[in-house]
User: What shape does this take?
Amino acid sequence: MKYFKGAQFVPAKGEALMFYECQEDGVTVVRQCSFITGTGEMTKTDKPVVKKLFRPEMLGTSSLEEFESFWNR
Assistant: This one.
């Protein structure tokens, strides 16, 4: 598996941290979770609506440990 992360600002809520677990091809999404820092809101899905990452090169790399730390919250 490959792991990616990204962030974007959400007005009136704070920064949204997004984590993706992908197949070895680096684009097929297996699981996804998001955490909003300002509110503590967490969403996670093992059946993501977005099945393929668009421009994964624009995301940072993550690790299994970092992904699991957010997934298990």
